[in-house]
Amino acid sequence: MEDAIKKSKVLIEALPYIKKFFHKVFVIKFGGSALSDKEIRHSVLEDIVFMNYAGMKPVLVHGGGPFINEKLKDAKKKPRFVEGLRVTDKKTMEIVDSALMEVNAVLVDEIKKMHSEAFGLSGKENRLIIAKKIKRKEDIGFVGSVESVDTTVLGKLIDDNIIPVISPVALGSEGDLYNVNADEAASHIAMALKAEKFFILTNVTGIMREQGKPETLYPSLSLSDVDALLRKKIVSEGMIPKTRACTNALEGKVKKAHIINGTLSHALLLEIFTDKGIGTEIIKLGRQTKATEGL
Q1: pLDDT at residue 293, rounded to an integer
Q2: 130-136, long-range: CB within 8 Å, 24+ apart, which pairs?
């Protein structure tokens, strides 16, 4: 009986959020090594299917770095990075595209096995993502930054209650393909769709005052807070592009952004449907909150 009461309390706690977010668009970026873990992947996709059945409109944008590295290894090509960006010659771009298409197909298939409709597409299709070449002192090849997003196809899929699953390969103005950072692509898609929420799933608890210490987690930050944390280099290394993607989304009319640990079982549901949440939410408030006063 006690177990049943606990379950009913969970459902009652979730009810106002289900009502609040009915028919709202949520953009979720999922990538990294977690994609390779079947148990984690299943948990994330199960959450997305739950959201879909609860009347929300999830859009999934995925990366695939580990899969790309495996493909490059098979082709006897050593991955190389300049300022954190993968050097992408013509052959590497073909491998990136192929690897991400395979990841995309797996995600779509697994969502369908959970009895939700999903449709896989790439940013290169229907001019979904147009990118321009990123220029560095050293030419890094076909690496791009997002210039525009066309939501025509996405809008139709969302209206038909079909979950879009998007690979972040983009099209250049002259027809070339570009490798685009998945966090950036997801952020721009969230902006273009005027999403209610933007989620980045990572392998850490969220933004922390001290790396590796979950007890120092910032549960909520404003844009001004984030600027302070970046200046003080409390947000550093791999968290910088994820945090920037969140702030860009907020500046582009997305209402809230979240960085959460996607390796935790049902992390998305815990962040969306509970009062406390589990990660870091970033909101637009213009002034610093008490969380980072004095930084």
Answers
A1: 53
A2: 130/170, 130/171, 130/172, 130/173, 131/170, 131/171, 131/172, 131/178, 131/180, 132/172, 132/173, 132/178, 133/172, 133/178, 134/85, 136/82, 136/83, 136/85
